[in-house]
Specification:
heterodimer, A: alpha/beta, Rossmann fold, 6-stranded mixed sheet, 4-stranded antiparallel sheet, 34% helix, B: 9 helices, 85% helix, 0% strand
Amino acid sequence: MATPKLEWRGVSKRFGANKVLDGLDLSVAEGRSLALLGRSGQGKSVTIKVALGLMVPEAGSVLLDGVDVTHQRERERRASFAGIGMLFQGAALFDSLPVWENVGFRLINADGVPRAEARARAIEALGLVRLAPEVADLYPSELSGGMQKRVGLARAIAGQPSLLFFDEPTTGLDPITAGAINELIRDKVTSLGCTAVSITHDLHSARTIADDVAMLDAGRIVWQGSASELDHADHPLVRAFVTGNPAGVE
Amino acid sequence: MPHSAPGGVIGWVNALGRAVLDGVAAVGRVGHFAARGVAAAVTPPWYPRQILGQFMAVGFLSLPVVGLTAWFTGAALALNIYSGGDRFNAETVMPQIVALGITRELGPVLAALMLAGRVASAMASEIGAMRATEQVDAMFTLSTEPRRYLIAPRLIAATVSLPLLTLLADLIGVAGGMQVSKLLIDLPYSIYITNTVDFITRWDVESGLIKSAVFGFIIGLMGCYHGDTAKGGARGVGRATTSAMVSSAVLILAADYLISSIFARL
C-alpha cells in the first residue's frame, strides 16, 4: 500500500477541559483532494493547524510523506514544510507589504530568490489566478475580498507546492466569486498535481474542489467517502448537511 | 457537610498564593520569550531589510520626540538649579550639574520612557493585529520563522537605537541648559561648554549608554511579548498595547535603580 501524502495518526488536542481532537485518524493519498466537513467547533481548523505545525498535539503524530513531523526542530521543519501552501480563511495577507511581496514572500525570505526574480514569479502566479500585473503594486487593503482570496491562492501556489491547505476558501464571498475561487482551486490542484486538504461548510464548494470527503465530529472522523457518495450517505450528520435539516442530529 | 469557598485568612492566603504563582509563571514566560528572541537575534538567518526598517521606525522616527524632550529637560533642569540652587550657590556649577544629571540619569531614562510610549505600544499593536488576522501563522506556513522575521529585528533595533538616541539626547539636553544659562545668568556659550567638557568624565556618558541599551531591550521585549501573546481580537490588541507601554515604563524605572546601584559600587 502506497504511503499517504499526509496522515494524522491518533491525534488528540485539548484546550483546558475541552477535548477538540480525540484520537483523530485520517489520511490523504498523494494527488487526491480531501474536503473536511463538520459543524462549527468540531476541530476542523485545529486539524489543519496541527498538520501545519502551528499547534502541537498532546498525543498522536502527523506524518508527511511517511515522516513524523510532529516534533521537528526549526531547520528540519523548514525543509519538510517547504512544499506546502496554505490559503487562510481571511487570506491573511501581510498588510504592510504590496501584493507582489505577499505572493513572493516565501521566495524572498525562505528560498533566497533575488527580489527582481521573485517579483517576476509573483506576477506570473498572479496571472494563474487571473489577476492583472497592475495588482502587484497595490496593498491588500486596496483589494476586494475576492481579490484578496485570489492573492492568497497565488501566494499558496507560488512556491510550486506539493500539498495545499484551504481554510474555508469561499466563506464571505458572493456566489459568483465563490464559484470562481472554487474553479481556480480545482484547476490549480489538478494542473499542479497537488494533494489538497480543504475545510469547508459549503457543500457546493466541497463537490467542486474535492475528490474525497470526510466528516469530523467530536474530534473524530465519523464518515469518509468520495465526493460523489456524499448525496447518498446514510450517516445522520452527513444527511443533515446535505438536506440542511438538523432533525436526528444532537 | 457541604464544602464552601474558603473565606477570611485562608481565602486571603489562597489569593496571595495564586497571585505569586501567576507572577512566577509570567516571569518564566517572559524569560523564555526573551531567550528565544535573543537566540534568533544572534543566529542566522537574519532579515536585513526588516532590521533596517525597524531602525528607521524605532530610531530615526523617534528623533523629534526624544530631541524635544531632551531640550526641555535640560532647560528646565538649568532653570531649577538657578531658582532653587542659589541657596547654596549651585548656579555657579550649573553646567556641571546639568551635564551630570542629563548624561547619567535624565537622558537615558526620559529617552527610554518616550520610546516606551511611542515604540513598545506600536510593536504590541502591530504584532497583536498580525496574530489576530493569522498573518503570523501565514508567515510560519511560508517557511519563515516569525521569531526571526518579526521579533529579532525589533529587539536588535530597540537595543542599538536607544543608546544612539540617548547620546543625541545628552547633547541636546546640555544645549538646552546652555541656552537657559545664557538667558538667566548671561553665561557665555564658550565658558559653559568648557566647564561641561572639563567636568564630565567618559564614564558619566558610558554608564548612561549602558543603561539605555538595557532599557532599549526592555522596550523591544515588552512590545513584542505583549503583541505576540495578545488574545481576543481588537480588545486583546488594545490590552496588549497598554500592557506593553506600562510594563516597559515600570521595568525601565526598576532597571534604572538596579543598574545605578550596581554602578555606584564600581
